Amino acid sequence: KYNREHSIPKSWWGGTTSAGTQGADPFIVVPADKYINNKRDNYPYGKVSKVTFSSQDGYSKIGTADESYGYSGIVFEPNDEVKGDLARAVFYSIVKYKSSLNWTLNGGSAYYTGDETKNFGLTDYAVRLFTEWNELDPPDEWEKNLNEALYKIQGNKNPFIDHPEYVNIIWGSDSEEEDSEEEGSEEEYSGEEYSEEEGSREE
Known about the structure:
- With 203 residues, the protein is an alpha+beta fold.
- It has helices at 34-40, 80-96, 124-136, 141-154, 159-162, 165-170, 173-182; strands spanning 2-6, 29-33, 48-54, 61-65, 74-77.
- Mean pLDDT is 88; it is low at 184-200.
């Protein structure tokens, strides 16, 4: 049996699932095996070091986190073939919803800091884990087709599906190189304007 999984647990932001919010956004809400979804509960994603639960054939796991990523606690590790999809959903959330800065309830502080002055609101743990997953599992044709289909439904895309390289430009090594190149420069980068077609950030 399948149900709707909030890839970013709704308990982290208070539970709203109203139309037009993150709780009903199909880039965040995905179909999942009902039993596995219930087992996942509201654990953050992560790399499991000691398994306490494994689904059939080890497709997904729950257990103690690999602390080398900077987080200690229980985490849910999905299969490699969907890690990039889920990572791009997290990056999407921080650029689409300004309120995501405060999605820190009930374990949400694993990803979100409440402060956009560093990592644009993501924790070091989230940046390290999800930049890695974004590279491990780049967008495939299915994900790209889904992006196009959802654009027709709700009028916006996940930009990290069309351009996964944006992740490194914003959060990864490319960002660090750009910062070092700009040191001492008097030029100010104003940033690329978003078109109405791509959607705007929601409060």
